[in-house]
Amino acid sequence: MNAAPILPEILLGLGAIVLMMVSAFVRRASSVTHWGAILVLLGACAALIGAPQTAGAVFDGMWAADSFAAFGKVIIYLSAAVAIVMAHNWFERDQEHAAEYAVLILLSALGASMMVSATDLMMLYVGLELQSLSAYVLASYRRHDERSAEAGLKYFVLGGLASGILLYGISLIYGFAGTTLFTGIAAAFADGGATNLGLLFGLVFTLAGLAFKISAVPFHMWTPDVYEGAPTPVAAFFAAGQKAAAILLATRVCLDAMGPATSQWQQIVIFAALGSIILGAVAAYGQTNIKRLLAYSSINNVGFALVGLAAGGRAGAQAVLLYVAVYVVMTLGAFLCVLRMRDAEGRPVESLASLSGLSQTRPALALALAMFMFSLAGIPPLFGFWPKLMVFQAAVGAGLNLLALAAAALTVVGAYYYLKVIKVMYFDAPAEAYAPARSGLESALIAVTALVISPVGYLLIRPLSDLAANAASVF
């Protein structure tokens, strides 16, 4: 068999095994595994260039090495690399930056990579569980921190429940379609499946399980607690790379496996989209912890991505891809700024009150965080405005005018809590100054992400649109 279509996954798997052995036999191997994992992830990105993106179905149709998967994998691998960079200074002072952190990130990225290439429900489940099992450990990585242990336990229990719901949906679809391949499921839905009660129940349960993974309403309840309790680099990876993988997985399932039943799943997606936008906006109002606020922001942004998915077709898939790409940059930038929130003794600080007067004590950091907040809110001329416009246009093009109008109106509601952060930084009396920055690489990443979401980012519209259009052409 030609191994080129799965070369990135081979590199990730072998890299994780080798680095695990290094961590077992080399003293103080954290730096070695840290940089080794980053090289493996960059190598996996490079392997996507050599892998045939037109290879079509692999493993008898269970795997797709196409441009849609390649688009998602680049996002996942780069997000994982940033999460490893972020962890270096985060764990160093507490002597917690052990070598297994980078290995767990690699394994989680491998599972996420399988998710976006899966064209079979069993392959989908294997990738999802590999990603989830690593995520449970990462969430509770700080073993002596009660909040981290609580986050890992909540994520594990609720994740197990979601996996059960998903498996039940898969079993129903297999029972009534006779196959777990997406092509066979699509054929079953096309051949009277829209009126088959068993298939429809399977559709509902499968989408419910996937909704948990993307933290869409009403399966969002774990997100704020896990993001708050998990280490900040881990929360950043959850909000960026893992969420991107889950959204793209849901997109492939809906448009590929359940394409003929669009009118059935579209209602579910519209409900989840509006519910996520509303709850993500309203529930964030009273938050005093910056990581919980970003958790509700992620729920809110998932809602806008689902607006694009509800549109269906290639236009909807393209809008989702564009939204995910820009959202990941904005989210990683925001969490990189949160890393800088440390008191004079180097301990992490997460309260919004600690940002008071930041524009006077750390003007560059305040400017970067303000840009990310404005961009997440979708306020022009920052680049975050463009993907929201794209999903609205996709919804209007699909005849979902009321959905687009409601989502656009709710954008104003969500803007309040982003503006609240900016108000605290620029108009409140200064709080105690944060400790000086310790990493030039983190500063460089903040500068790059801020540049991308600035008006300069509009220079990327044509190439990014072309890449997304090419990726969406598989549907």
Structure, described:
- This protein is mainly α and 475 residues long.
- The protein is 73% helix and 1% strand.
- The chain is built from 19 helices and two strands.
- A two-stranded antiparallel sheet has the order 1-2.
- Helix 6 (146-177) packs across helix 9 (223-229), helix 11 packs antiparallel against helix 12 (290-311) and helix 11 runs parallel beside helix 17.
- It starts with 6 loop residues before the first helix and ends with a helix.
- The relative contact order is 0.09.
- It is an enzyme of class 7 (translocase).
- Residues 118-411 form the NADH:quinone oxidoreductase/Mrp antiporter transmembrane domain.
- Pfam families: Proton_antipo_M.
- It is a multi-pass membrane protein.
Provide a short characterization of the protein structure.
Belongs to the complex I subunit 2 family. By secondary structure, the chain is an all-alpha fold.
Distance linking N and C termini: 26 Å
- Inertia-based shape: globular
Question: Mean pLDDT, nearest integer?
Answer: 87
Major pleated sheet: 2 strands, antiparallel
- Could you estimate the helical fraction of the residues in percent? over 70%
Radius of gyration: 21 Å
**What structural category characterises the helix and strand content?**
mainly alpha
Beta percentage is under 5%
SS field, number of helical segments:
19
Number of strands: 2
Strand-and-helix sequence, N→C? HHEEHHHHHHHHHHHHHHHHH
Question: Going across the major beta sheet, what is the strand order?
Answer: 1-2
Q: What are the segments in which pLDDT stays under 50 over at least 5 consecutive residues?
A: none
Subcellular location: Cell membrane; Endomembrane system; Membrane
InterPro entries: NADH-Q_OxRdtase_suN/2 (IPR010096), ND/Mrp_TM (IPR001750)
Keywords: Cell membrane, Membrane, NAD, Quinone, Translocase, Transmembrane, Transmembrane helix, Transport, Ubiquinone
Protein name: NADH-quinone oxidoreductase subunit N
